[in-house]
Amino acid sequence: MMTFLIVGVSILFLVGLIVWMKVEPFIAFLLTSIAAGLFLGIPLASISGSIQRGIGSLMGALVIVIVLGAMLGKVVADSGAAQRIALFLTESFGERRLQWSIALTAFIVGIPLFFNVGFVLLIPLVFAVSNQHRIPVMVVGIPMLAALSVTHGLLPPHPAPVALVAQFDAHMGTTLIYGLILAVPTVILAGPLLGKLPYFGTIQVKPLAVFSAKPKPIEQLPGLVNSLFTALLPVFLLIVLSLLGLNFPEDHPAYGWIAFFSDPNVVMLLSLIWATYSLGIGRGQRMATIMEGYGTAVKDIALILLIIAGAGAYKEVLMDSGVSAEIGASLQQLPVNPLLLGWLIAAVIRISVGSATVAALTAAGISAPLVAAGGVDPNLMVLAIGTGSLIFSHVNDGGFWLVKEYFNLSIKQTFLSWTLLETAVAVIGLVGVLVLDVFV
Questions:
Q1: Cβ(275)–Cβ(121) below 8 Å
Q2: 399-404 own/partner pairs: CB under 8 Å, 24+ apart
Q3: Which segments within 266-335 are labelled E, that is strand?
Q4: Is residue 430 classed as helix, strand or coil in its secondary structure?
Q5: In Å, how far are 83, 177, 433, 439 from 436, measured between CA atoms?
């Protein structure tokens, strides 16, 4: 009980520093991490190391993708490519069905791409569609966020589902089929349909300048094929290279090349190089002008990187203190449906620690005996834990700050949009898993 209390108080302390005392979020995260480490029993000499590991591990995985993604987003926005794609979506689906077209695009993009990569890639498109058709940003943004979140939590080849399949000795293909059956209605309910709520139309959002290029005359826009291919090149590369990788064993000479070029960091770098030519130099732009735009893009996301780094520090302190294991062990004793219990363990760890991947992997270790004992489909347990790990994203989750800063929301607005969405995804997903359990 004391552990729950300390975690709860530390979260309130973090919110208080940021909301009421107006402390810069990165500094607030550092102060909260130190305080939480002290009260959770981490030796004083080890707290600084936990903070550094948390920042290093999270930023090491994200900084290249986010920075290169911001540059790619800048050139896609400034060149008019995002505007061209927005016009194409309107003509293909009609203005009334724009939310559905955005959700479909994000779902396709989200299958091979990590949440952060897909988010950075699609955010300029969301702003372009919103600006082009005078639609509130969050009305368009909610379907995109729902699709990316669901694919991240439920579908291989994302890290958590893949790891859960291995840990529970589930079948990758079966899990993917069940995951798709569950993902489609979840995205529909938590995306386009949730986004139709009048509340989202009232959220006043002023997007970051880096993604708010002024509309260009149609005759000055790049071609549709060029715009689509360049904007979605990371997706094409990852899909093709992933499929190639399945056909080569690890001892094959070509495997190393495929593994290298399929790395998200390399994919984003190659995509940016191509975009620099196809949307820049190839259309008469000077290299100096393009690079100046890239510099502006990096400046605009500098604070975002620091905030995500701070969230990583806080997460690591909670992990090093043993909070996840203690919370999970206490929940394991509850006499409930194993699928519901796996979902609940992942949900509580997610709320406490922040990272969906950490919550899923930790819950898997705790829930493994339930699967080993039989009586529960391991493929469904993967999905139950995956949906539970998405619930109630808040201030200790890097994704919370990614959404807040890119959409330029207040903390309250982020809670009432992103956090609400993630909770809806988790609850709808749980209901879907329990329904599937009746039929499989």
A1: no
A2: 399/115, 399/116, 399/356, 400/311, 400/354, 401/25, 401/304, 401/307, 401/308, 401/311, 402/116, 402/119, 402/304, 402/308, 403/119, 403/145
A3: none
A4: helix
A5: 41, 12, 5, 5
DSSP-based three-state secondary structure for 152 = helix
- CA nearest 213: which of 131, 121, 273? 131
Q: Which structural domain, as residue segments, surrounds residue 6? A: 2-439
The dihedral sign for the CA sequence 126, 132, 135, 137: positive
d(CA 150, CA 108): 11
User: Exposed, middle or buried, 439 (CB in 10 Å: 0-12/13-18/19+)?
Assistant: exposed
Cis peptide before 157 (omega within 30 of 0): yes
CB 211 within 8 A of CB 77: yes
C-alpha span between 310 and 186 (Å, rounded): 31
Tokens linked to 164: 């859960």
Count of domains for the chain: 1
Q: What is the pLDDT along the chain (440 residues), one digit of tens a residue?
A: 687 788 888 878 887 888 788 888 889 889 999 999 999 999 999 999 999 998 998 788 778 888 888 888 888 888 988 778 878 887 888 878 889 999 988 898 788 677 887 888 788 888 888 888 888 999 999 999 999 999 999 988 777 888 888 888 888 888 989 999 999 999 999 999 999 999 999 988 877 666 665 678 888 899 999 998 998 888 788 778 877 877 788 888 888 898 899 888 898 899 999 999 999 999 999 999 999 999 988 887 787 788 778 878 887 888 888 876 676 666 666 778 889 989 998 898 888 878 788 788 778 877 777 787 777 899 999 999 999 999 999 988 888 988 998 899 999 999 999 999 999 999 999 999 999 999 98
Q: Which two tokens stand for residue 41?
A: 């029993």
Contact between 189 and 427 (Cβ < 8 Å): no
Distance CA 207, CA 132 (A): 14
